[in-house]
Every structure is written in C-alpha cells, then in structure tokens.
Q: What sequence folds into this?
C-alpha cells in the first residue's frame, strides 16, 4: 500500500513549518499588540450551527461528519439494497470559516464577555472545494474582529494592523476599500436596488472578465437601458487608481438623492481622512475601489480586500463590517467589523518573491552536535551535553555509533553550526575538538569555554 | 435557536487560552531546545490510512467524513426506503492520534528526511469516545519522536525532556518506566507468552482494580495453577516503590532462561544507570513499574507513563519504543521512540493545583487605554495612540463615545494597567491625566513621558 493524503490537503515539512511560523508569529504579534484576545472553538460544530449560513453553494462545501451511532442494525436489509452506502445520520460538521463559530461563541458566552470584544482566532478551516492554485481544502484563517462597537475607529485600526503585518513580512500590498452602502446607493440610483446581490456579484468580476463583459452581464441582470451611460461613466475607469478625494466628487454628485449611498461615502471619507494619522508604512497603499463587493452579502458597511502588488493570486487578507452577525443565534443588534489573513496564500506569495530569506530566523534549534565514537565516549558526552543544556546551549548527542561521515552529513542537513569530537584523548584532557560547520575551521577548546564560544558566534 | 457545541468539545475563552498557551510554550521550547523539528499533517487522512491501526475498538472511535459526492441521484428511491439515511460514501476520516500520520509522513517523505529524524508535532486529534473527566472528543497531542535510531540514548533524552517540561510548569510528577521485553519474559516464564496482549491488559489494571482482582482475571486468562505463587510473588507489592536496583535482582533470577526478558532488563539497566547523568530536577521521580503496559501493543521496548503526584486523572504524558511503525506503509525496519504530552489533562491538573498563578505571564497585551471623550478628542487620541505604538507600547483607544463608567469597567475587566484621560484642556497643554489601575493613583504627565513611565512600571 502506497500511502497518500486527501486531495487539497498538505503535509508541512520542518522547513515549511519554520516559514509558516514566521507568518503566524507576525500576525499574532500584531493582534496581541493591539489588545486582541485569543479564543479557540472546536473543529466540529453542530451541523445546524453551520447550515444555511454560507448560501446554497456554501452548504454543499461543508464537510459533514458521520455519526458513530450505527443504525445498520435497525435496517439489516440496507446493505443488500444499497451496497457501499453508509447507514448513519450526520449531526456534526467541520467549520467552514471562523466567523460563524465566533458569532456562536459570542452568543453562548455573552455574559462573560466585556464589550467591545476584540477577539482573535487562528485555526484551520475546511471546504470541499475544487483544489487549485492558492485554494486548498484545509487552510488556516487568522481572524481579528471587534464586536459590540459601531465606531469607525475600529475600521481605521484594522487597516493599521493590516499595514503592520505586511510591513513586518516585508510584503508590498494594496489595501482596497469600499462600502456596502455606496454599492447600495449606486444600485438604487441605477434602478437595481432589488437586485443588489446580483449587481454586486457582477461588479466584483471587473478584474476577472473586464469592463465590456461586465456591461453585458449587468444588462442581463436588468440594468435599465437609459442607465447604461451612467453605469459606463462610473465604472469604465474603475482601476484608474486615482485618489478617493477625486472619486468622491463624482460619486457625491451621482448619489445625491440616495441617503444610504451618501452615508457610505461619509464613512469612507472618515477612514481616508484618518489615513494621515495612520502613518502607514511604505509597504502598503490604501485605495478606493467602488467595484469591490467580496461576494459575502453579510457585509453592511466597510469592505476590505488586500492584494499582493507583484503576484496574481487573489486576496491575501479581507474583511468588512457586518451589522447583525449574532442575530441568527438570538442576539440581535450587535455590530462588528473584522479582518481575516490567509496564511496559505501569503506563504505562496512570499515563496514566489523569495521574501523568507530576508526575514531573520530566530528559532531555537540545536547549536552543537556531539559525534558518537562508541560506548565509553557516548556516556561521557551525555554528561557534557546535559551540562551545556543547563547553560542554555541547545546541544545534541548523535545517538548511534554510525560512521563519522554519516554523522557529519546529519549535522550538515540539519544546519547545526558546530560539531564536537571527543575521543579517548579528549576525554582524558578535558578538551573538545570543535568544527565550525560554516567556515570548516577546526580547533581545540577546553570544555569550559565551549558555551561561551558558541554564544559569541 | 439556542446555540450549542457538540458533546465532548470545548470553546476556549481568552483566559483559558492564555493558560493553555503557557503549557504549549513550555513544551515547544523543550522540543526545540533538544533539536526536534516541527511538522504538521492534515486533519483529514484517507480512511484506509487510519483503519485497522488502532484495533477493532479504535476503528469504531474514528470520525469518518462524508464524501461530498452526492450519490442520491443514482438511487432516487433511497429516501423513500430509508428516510434520514445519508446516501454517500466516505473515504476520509479525522486523525485519531499523531503517530500513525507521522508514520505515513515518514514513508511519503523518506527521501527528504535526514535520519535519525527528530520530529515534533502539536495538533488536535479526534475520538468518538464517551466524554468524561479528562477525556474529550477533541484534544491536543504534543508528540516528540526520534525515528531511525535504536540507541537507548534516545530514551534517556526523552526522559530528560519530560523532566524539563514538568519542571518548567512546576508540576510534580512520577515517570514510570517499563519494558515490553520484560513483560514478554514474565509472560513466557509464567507459561502465557501466547497470550501476551491479554496478559498485559490484565496486569495494567493493577492500579484500577487492585491485586486480588488481577489475580482472579489472570487465572481466567489461563495462568497455570502451578504458576500462581510465582505471579503473586512478582506483583503483590508492585506499588512498593523500591528502587530498580532492588527489583532487578529478583527479576534477573526469575527471567534467567528468558533471553528476551533479560535483554529488556538490560535496557532498563542502561536507562536507570544514566539517571545519575540526567540530573533530573526535583519535580520528577523516575520509577520502575513492571506492571506498566499501556494497552498499545505496538510498543516493543521502553514503555513510559507519567502521572501527576497529587491529582488522580490518568496519565499526563506517555510513550515508548516501537520497532516497526512504518512497516505498515511499506518501509520496514525503522525503529523509533517517542513521547506524547496531553495538554488537556495537564491543564486540568494545573488548574486543580492552582499552579497557573505561579507562572509568569509575559503575554503581550494592551498597556494603556485612552478614554474616548468625543469627536475632537478621539481624533487627537488616535494620533497619540499611534505614536505610542511606534514606541513599542501596546495602546488602545476606546472606540465608542460611551459613558466613562462603562469605559472604565472595560479597562478593568481587560486588566489594562493604565488609563489615559485627554479632555479639551489636556489637548491644549500636551499633557495626559494617567490613572494607575492597580493603585488607583491619578497624576498628570507630559505626553512624551508616558512611554517611559509605562515601561518603568
């Protein structure tokens, strides 16, 4: 039997884990620094907690878990009638994202929580999607949300945090910002407010299929003929990347009778005005994109999407404001806003741009390997290794009495910087022959000097 | 709808996460310090990778995942015949432990790995077990294994690591040690070697059901009448806790014609002799327990089990040597030895013994909260908060224009040590009114002094 793993899932090697941990550490550091508090929820939720929360398509992508109650006994004929079929009910499923479990958490623990609640959560999620580049069936989400506050200062802070994370990772990104209320206002003015969701889905495809096809599709969705010119005028240069201040003038005119649309514009105005105070690093640019909708129709205010500047792979971070996420679980009128980092995509982008080498590795690992020469020597070395460890030096004794060549190649592939040789003579003299694996140099040291020597290097 | 989570699973609040992270950090630190390298494997494995590896009972406890291929269409009559049944195949399952996925990993990646391979892995596992105290359906395992080496130095190092972890956590434990070969030798001499597994299972119950009942059970399993006296002699004072050196004399006599038994005794001898060199902390005691079997019949050499000294909750860590774990996946003759820490039980024990308070909290979190007085003030404070953050101080601005009382109670419940008040006057003067939340003291500071003041405290 040749072992394999399910399609769309991955093993992570030590080298990959070190790199992934750099990303997790950067995100966790920023979350903690901004006072977000970590929670964890179970991988398995009750099926009814998840079903119906992600639309019909989403429901199909939820991994259901078979109940371990064996119902077969009650229906002995089943196997004859339907071979291969599993006669069991299912009442649990793997979480599809971290947002719905978070909403469930807030409702269940509302009496223990001090609002506004800043929570973060870093856990894997599962989707029975078709695997492709940058899309996996098991992947991590790193979410930070502020719930129980409708102040726009929260949006401002989340944008700061996005900037800090990518600045820490030295990855250049564009933070695109929109507001669901502006989208609503535009749909309203175009005579399409009943079809807001479909309108948003079409608009969102601008980057993927281009302006001309979007015009066709939006006409199919019911754009009145007399509105086509207005639509073209708004979106033909959607990616012109001029500043919000310029766009604002055009939109304020267009949205002048739409109360909701104008509110959305004011909210954007607040965030872009605060941009000066944000002192964003040179790693990120904040831009307005009136076509940004992100498909998720639970967003009610800000919509945020972050893309890497030099790699085409979809978004590396996204988020927005939702006015009533916990309502479905019986706690209405709690407003929240959040962002979610996609570690797996960030990893792929950083790998492609070779950004990992530039980041410092500070991971604790073996500093010195003691070669194993045999029975007497290994007991002697065991003692020395323990002494070094007590001095805070990560030391390792090669466990087997293998050929020296094999032991050296182990040190090499593990990237251990020093190798110690202690034969009979060194045992007597209390000295150690050290090899510096980077330079290839070899020299003798008194054992007492070893810890200090390694620390210096 | 009142939300809930599946039986046997848990939400972790921020306070619980902080404590759990202390345990994870202690374990991770020791693993890294000893040169173990982290890997991760997918939560879902192919069903055939897991089935048949944990015995018949284990197979039943594996959570199977429904395929998302809908086979219903092919069998339209199914719903009428068998309502509530799920007409889908299952080819994936949630991992049951970290050992079998690790074996699968080693076989799949054998060409990229430098042996002996020291790997660690910290991930949740799932078991459809009956939940009870200390037993959950989702729980974390923290495993360290050395694979590709049959040196006993590995066992010695793993015992050192167990000691270091519990010493770091300030939890007093007893490390019980046995050897499968000794168990085999005893069974052989008692005329029960064909029934080694059943013999081990009975012996393992000594602590649970007591000596007299064990004698009864072992007789039922086929202990020859003439061997009862020998059996009683060996196990009646199994928990007398005398040293290995004393026990050794008795066992060497008893096992004198059993080659395997004597080999096991020599292996134990090597480890107990190295004990002097180990310099174990005063937090752990290493003891010999000839009755220790740990149920898992894949152990072939050392068997390790760690129990907390003052709380009865089962083992907090366990492990042993297995001579052929990867054979089932097509890579024979690779010997390994490993240990596994049970974070959830360690947590329960430390909670019961109130050990968390003694551990220092170093977690990064908000140091100062700026009270929100209104529109003008919040923009002013946003700038100051950003400046403080750039100086490395974790600062937070309360996002809403709520009553001061509510803002203060937020600071209180979040345990934020300083609160800053900046009203109209302070805006003009460049000063800040600070409140030290521990002492209740209030004083004025120039804004430039705030960062230094917080750092000093």
A:
């Amino acid at each position: 039997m040749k072992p394999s793993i399910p399609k769309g899932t991955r093993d992570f090697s030590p080298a990959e884990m070190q790199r992934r941990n750099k990303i997790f550490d950067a995100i966790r550091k920023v979350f903690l620094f901004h006072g977000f508090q970590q929670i964890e929820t179970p991988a398995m939720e009750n099926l009814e907690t998840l079903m119906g929360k992600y639309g019909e398509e989403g429901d199909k992508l939820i991994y259901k878990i078979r109940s371990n109650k064996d119902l077969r006994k009650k229906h002995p004929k089943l196997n004859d009638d339907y071979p291969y079929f599993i006669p069991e009910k299912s009442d649990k499923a793997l979480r599809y994202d971290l947002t719905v479990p978070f909403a469930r958490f807030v409702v269940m623990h509302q009496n223990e929580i001090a609002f506004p609640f800043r929570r973060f959560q870093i856990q894997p999620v599962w989707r029975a999607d078709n695997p492709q580049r940058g899309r996996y069936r098991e992947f991590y989400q790193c979410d930070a949300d502020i719930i129980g506050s409708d102040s726009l200062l929260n949006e401002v802070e989340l944008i700061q945090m996005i900037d800090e994370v990518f600045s820490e990772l030295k990855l250049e990104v564009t933070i695109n910002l929109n507001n669901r209320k502006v989208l609503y206002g535009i749909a309203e003015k175009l005579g399409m407010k009943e079809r807001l969701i479909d309108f948003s889905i079409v608009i969102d495809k601008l980057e993927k299929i281009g302006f001309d096809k979007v015009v066709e599709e939006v006409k199919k969705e019911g754009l009145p003929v007399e509105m086509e010119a207005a639509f073209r005028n708004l979106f033909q240069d959607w990616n012109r990347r001029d500043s919000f201040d310029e766009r604002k003038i055009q939109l304020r005119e267009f949205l002048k009778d739409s109360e909701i649309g104008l509110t959305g514009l004011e909210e954007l105005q607040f965030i872009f005005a605060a941009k000066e105070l944000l002192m964003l690093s040179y790693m990120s640019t904040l831009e307005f994109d009136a076509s940004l909708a992100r498909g998720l129709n639970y967003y009610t205010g800000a919509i945020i999407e972050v893309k890497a500047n030099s790699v085409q792979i979809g978004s590396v971070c996204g988020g927005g404001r939702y006015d009533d996420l916990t309502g479905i679980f019986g706690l209405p009128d709690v407003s929240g806003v959040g962002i979610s980092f996609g570690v797996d995509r960030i990893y792929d982008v950083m790998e492609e741009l070779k950004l990992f080498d530039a980041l410092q590795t500070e991971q604790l690992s073996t500093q010195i390997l003691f070669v194993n020469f045999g029975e007497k020597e290994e007991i002697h070395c065991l003692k020395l290794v323990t002494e070094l460890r007590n001095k805070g030096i990560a030391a390792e004794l090669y466990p087997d009495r293998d050929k020296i060549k094999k032991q050296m190649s182990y040190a090499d592939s593990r990237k251990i910087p020093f190798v110690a040789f202690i034969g009979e003579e060194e045992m007597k003299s209390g000295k150690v022959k050290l090899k510096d694996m980077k330079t290839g140099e070899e020299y003798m040291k008194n054992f007492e000097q070893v810890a200090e020597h390694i620390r210096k290097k």
